[in-house]
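Thread: "does anyone have the structure for this chain?"

Original post by V.I.:
We have the sequence but no experimental structure in hand. Need at least a predicted one for the grant figures.
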Amino acid sequence: MDLIAKAKAGTLWMALQEVSFRVLSFGTNIILARLLFPRDFGVVALALVAWEIIRLLGNLGIGAKLIHQQDDIEGYATAAFWLNITLAIILAVLTAIIAPYIALFYSNDLIHHILLLYSAVYIIQSLGSTHLALLNKALAFKKIALVELLITFLSKSIAITMAITGYGVWSLVIPEVILSPLKVLGLWIINPWRPSLALNISYWRDIFVFGFNFLGADLVRYLNINGDYMIIGKLLGEHSLGLYTFAYNLANLPFQAITAVAAKVAFPILSGLQDNLERFREVFLKMTKVVSLVSFPLLIELFIFSDLFVPLIYGNKWEASILPLKIIIGFVLFRTFASPGGQILFAMGRPDILFKFNLGQVPFLLTAVFIGARYGIVGAAIGMSGVLMVGTLVLLYISLRPIGLSLRTPFQAIFPAAASSGLTALSLGLLKGIFLTAGLQNYLILISLMPLGFVIYLIALSLFFRDDFKFLRNLFWEELIGRAITTFRSPDFASFPVGSALLLRKTKKL
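Reply from O.Q.:
Generated one for you, tokens below.
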């Protein structure tokens, strides 16, 4: 099966996995937000900030190297397997040494114990990292999705059960510890590849050379994304960090749900097209168009109605997160349409460019958040969003240069979605004001206006951007729903011409 056929066969399963994960996470988070407190989420956020920095020290782009590698896959895979385990053990020892000092820095001993559990999980997960990378390389998204769906369902079930029975903050930690061995077992079952006993140390140097820039890029990118957590946690405490984390995660929910599929599919597809620049550009621009058409209306509705549904669904204790949420949504709009651009540099084998960019951006971000945090989580949200909005546009410009595109091109691709979403926002804002003035209950406003918002968006798209409306209609109805039904009726699930079928099909007009 060629690259395009494999992409067609896998994209539906990847979409199914992501949608299921986001739906389960959304429902679970509502329950956990009502059972737990902002401080519980803040403590786990602090532990994750510290742990991710430690974990990234072991991220040498090993999985990316396997996906990018075009020959001697067996030798590199065996080397990657043993290298992953070696690094995991080293990092676990490092964690045991420094965890008490991290807990002391944040004045919370729970962080010490959480970090030790995370390090144990990392060792277990290293046993399946190579299997997962090889499955991604083969675009075997169906197999990955089946394992991930099972683990996600069990994880959310355990978390809710623990929260109900009074385990508090541990409800957010223990499920991953319990289910890590099961996930690794699943990966070994669905992927028949087995490592040899030879360590293949001679390959390690090549992996290190390739991965050094991945390590650097990931470290500074992590500071760009999570530097605000570190500063807020230290200056404002766990309660404020819990509120800020809630706002950040909710604002990024549409981004994570939509672009996660595009990103996971983009890297292996674009890597396979790196010698065909014309097709490379075509696939990238279509990915950008799809992401904007789907995510923009979701973000607009989240912005308009967040002050109504946050207290209604999550409870009044989260009301202080509403204004930071609206601010962060502004940044996420930029991040969403520019996100496929980040895959260009990786697919072209140039993570060093991303490393240098993120390294230059870190001081501006940390300074802005530090100054903003003096005015609470609202100030921190303004500082973070302002720097990253500008940075996102600059990075997109840099990413487009290797493939011969200007910054104007992706803006043209997203204009229909942006214009239609703008009209939707104006309409919903006006109607919301009228309904509030009339004294309608919040739940009635949400029930009536949220579905209407999507109708307004589709009408605007069909009236002013007919080609894009047809593109979106085909994506969801003909390519996704219709063919998915046909596919699931097939005994061998042999063909999944969805999502990426549109991305990879040659057309005269974007």
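V.I.: this helps a lot. Confidence is low (pLDDT under 50) at residues 483-488, 490-510.
O.Q.: and The longest helix spans residues 277-314.
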